Amino acid sequence: MNSTPSNPAEKFDTSRASEYAHQSRIALAGYDACQDLAACMLAASIGDAPSANILVVGAGGTAQEIIAMAGLEPGWRFMAVDPSQPMLEAARQQLQANHLLERTTLHLGHLEDLPADASYDAATLIGVLHHLEGDEAKRQILQSIRAHLKPGAPLIVAGNHYAYASQPLLLAAWGQRWRQHGASADEVKAKLGKILQGADPPNSEAAVQKLLHDAGFGDATRFFSSLFWGAWLTCKAGE
């Protein structure tokens, strides 16, 4: 693993934010399907409530999770949190284009900046965990999310798992995915290098489950998988 910056948000500068919508859909085969299914899983978990307040952690970039949820549930409102200004601005532009700014509060910063008594009906953490170095940082963000969730509230967690070097076939297929979209051998090497920079994914699905249990969540149900990527729904465990 390469050294992770002390502030992972530093990786998501203006250059990376500007290409994120295109590059993420190549790096993650099924990107939009994952977001759509995440919305469906949350809606199925929350039930028929006419309204809900959703905490979206790491919302910067495409804001696709908000777009998918908002399209499915017109009564939902969103708190979008991201520490990267360029990524949050990219999300703002997408939300504006989809007429969703009036349903979304944008917060530049971290969960710790939110009022301690802010409470939400559900949360998402998509594409974040593998950018945090070490299990302690991963547990801390999950615990912070839990602190802002109502009892029994659902959480969607999605991101890369497996140590990249431990899965050479998946890593090679990942390179082929870029080649499939027209990248040369040198470009594939560069793109994989950027993806791997500073990444520290949980090393297995069991490791993801343990992180969730340690942070006070119940057993997780996996509903999507694509090469290194997995997506799960869990719920806040009892007090």
TrEMBL record:
Coiled coil: none annotated. Residues 60-154 form the Methyltransferase type domain. One of its GO terms (molecular function) is methyltransferase activity. The keyword Aminoacyl-tRNA synthetase does not apply. Keywords: Methyltransferase, Transferase. The lineage of its organism: Bacteria, Pseudomonadati, Pseudomonadota, Gammaproteobacteria, Pseudomonadales. It comes from Pseudomonas khavaziana. It holds the Pfam family Methyltransf_12. This is Class I SAM-dependent methyltransferase. Transmembrane segments: none annotated. GO terms for biological process: methylation.
